[in-house]
Amino acid sequence: MPTDHAHAPLPPAPRPNPGTLRTAAIVAGALAVVIVVLGIISRLSQSHQTKVWTSTEAIPVVSLVSPEPETTTQDLVLPGTLDAFYNAPIFARVPGYLKIWYHDIGAKVKKNELLAIIDTPDLDQQLVQAKADLKTIEAKRALAEITARRWTGLLKQDAVSAQETDEKVGDLAAKTAEVNAAEAHLGDLEALKAFSRIVAPFDGVITARKTDIGYLINAGASANPTAELFDVSEVDKLRLYVSVPQVYGARVVPGVKATLTVPEYPGRSFPATITTTSNAVSQHSGTVLVELIVNNLDGALKAGDYAQTTFELPGDDTTGGHAVRLPSSTLIFRNKAAEVAVLGAQDRVVLKPVTVSHDLGNSIEISAGLSPTDKVINNPPDSITDGELVRLAPAPTAGGAHGAG
Fold first, then answer.
1. CATH, domain 234-315, list 2.60.120.560, 3.90.1150.10, 2.40.30.170, 2.160.20.10
2. Percent of the chain clearing pLDDT 70 (strictly above)
3. How many Cβ atoms are within 10 Å of 158's Cβ, its own excluded?
4. Long-range contacts of 177-186 (CB under 8 A, 24+ apart)
């Protein structure tokens, strides 16, 4: 039988304390406020850091170079061309055929040494004819002389008239003139015949042979300007020609020390002496042509060589001894004259106008506006302004260029 306990009612649940609920609500609200405040503070901090980072990154990063005091001398390196001291293209003075040649290219020859002989059959025939004509005219002159002598004797005896005697004497004079003309013509032909022997005009080296046995020879350069038989060059001394920019024209003068190098002898230099300049500026290149002499007794250098010429220029007196040198990348060109940016107090930019005395290519010589103690900004941004704040680039670490490990 069921008992009476199964149907007994449950005891009522206890009611929450109103004070406890209120405390929990306050705690929850406080936590929510704290979370909101922390979020706001975090966002404000992040925004401030972003602004600081943005403003920091907006400051240009620059590197510095120090002006180098200009020394008393500077090297000016320019290209040049070596030429023979004397160079003579040898042409034929008489037509004919090349009979024989005696020296090939590279041979050293002395003045008047025989180089070749030209066979001249036409000229030889003219010589034979001229000699025969001279003998004929000489015979006629001899007869005219005898006749004039006889008629002069007869005139003294009044056996002939004076008119006839004058005619015989005049005929002798005419025959004498014909003999002189024939002798001169024969002399011309003999002089031409001498030119059939091609000889060296001076001591030198055969640098070209442009003929061979049996070649048809035309007389003179006008017949064919490229038909020279030989080229002879004196190479014991060479001429060096260098085009010097106008800005250095007044400093590259006789007395300035110069040396040259050629590609075939790396590491070896040859002294050269400035002899003269053109004293004129080329309208096409804006340069002054300078001539130097190079001794070449050992034959190491060759005519036509390309040479790098170094001039040891004296210091420019116009700088007053205060010139400095900087990389060309430091210059700023705007509406004003040339300027450079210098790092001033509190990392602020100071723009200084400068006077460029010489442009040396990768570097420039500044004669006024800077001192060796200035800290010059290299490769300044195009937008850099006076008083602008800049940051210095960090110095490279010892191993930074090679990486770790």
1. 2.40.30.170
2. 82
3. 8
4. 178/137, 178/140, 178/141, 179/134, 179/137, 179/138, 179/141, 182/130, 182/133, 182/134, 182/137, 182/138, 183/134, 185/130, 185/133, 186/127, 186/130, 186/131, 186/134
Average pLDDT, the chain: 82
Residue count of the chain, please give it.
Answer: 405
Distances (CA, A) of 128 to 120, 155, 331: 13, 41, 82
306 near 81, Cβ under 8 Å? Answer: yes
Burial of 281 from C-beta contacts in 10 A (0-12 / 13-18 / 19+): middle
User: Taking the chain, what is the end-to-end CA distance rounded to the nearest angstrom?
Assistant: 93
**Residue corresponding to tokens 């061309």:** 81
CATH topology for 320-392?
2.40.420
Q: Where do the structural domains in the chain lie, given as residue ranges?
A: 85-216, 234-315, 320-392
Distance of CA 380 to the CA centre of its chain: 31
Alpha-carbon gap, residue 321 to 220, rounded angstroms: 60
Give the CATH architecture of domain 85-216: Orthogonal Bundle (1.10)
| pLDDT tens-digit readout, 184-209 | 999 999 999 999 999 999 999 999 99
pLDDT of 47 > 90? The answer is no
